[in-house]
Amino acid sequence: MSNLVPEIGRLVATYPQYALILGSIFCFLGWPIFRPSIALQGFIIGAYFGMRFAQAAGYGSSQVTVVALAALVGLILAGVALSLIGVYAFLYGFLLGFWSMIFLGLNGADVVSVTILAPIVGIIAGFVVVRYLDLGVIVVTAFFGASLVVEALQQMGRLPPIGSSTAVTVGLAMLGILVQYAISQKM
Fold first, then answer.
1. Looking at the chain, which runs of residues are DSSP E strands?
2. Cα→Cα distances 178→138, 169, 171, 182, Å
3. Sign of torsion over alpha carbons 7, 13, 14, 17
4. Burial degree of 21 (CB within 10 A; 0-12, 13-18, 19+)
5. pLDDT by residue (tens digit) across 52-96?
6. How far apart are CA 99 and CA 122, in angstroms?
7. Share above pLDDT 70 across residues of the chain, in percent, rounded to a whole number
8. pTM for this structure?
């Protein structure tokens, strides 16, 4: 886990423009694309396994059979993924609570306290997001997206690396929450 934070930072440093686009999408459209993105993830995973199964079963010479089986398994797993929306929401909340504690811990808190508190705060946040699904996912995606946008702007030299990042992240997340909430009321 300790290698994950520098890895994410390295990816954002290498491709800040993509992080800026992805962060903006999460920040302002997180809730409207939540269900379609879950279905898409399930479809992609299912199509991959369907294709691998078809090839392993000896249908590799028939492209139509491979594509049909991949599509069928993809659609099945898309449906399964959508039925597990609460699990996805819990994971979003858990990650927000967990990473918040980790990042707070990196700013001078006791490592043992953070190690004990991070999973507890993550679990509590996960249950809160599941309980208040619409608003919970809006808040989580807005903060994830805002964090990614601010990091990308810092990497691009458009924002000072220290000092204003927390205020800009919170302000951008609040704007993202308002936009997503307004969009969700029209849906």
1. none
2. 9, 14, 11, 6
3. positive
4. middle
5. 888 888 876 678 888 899 999 999 999 999 999 999 999 999 998
6. 8
7. 86
8. 0.77
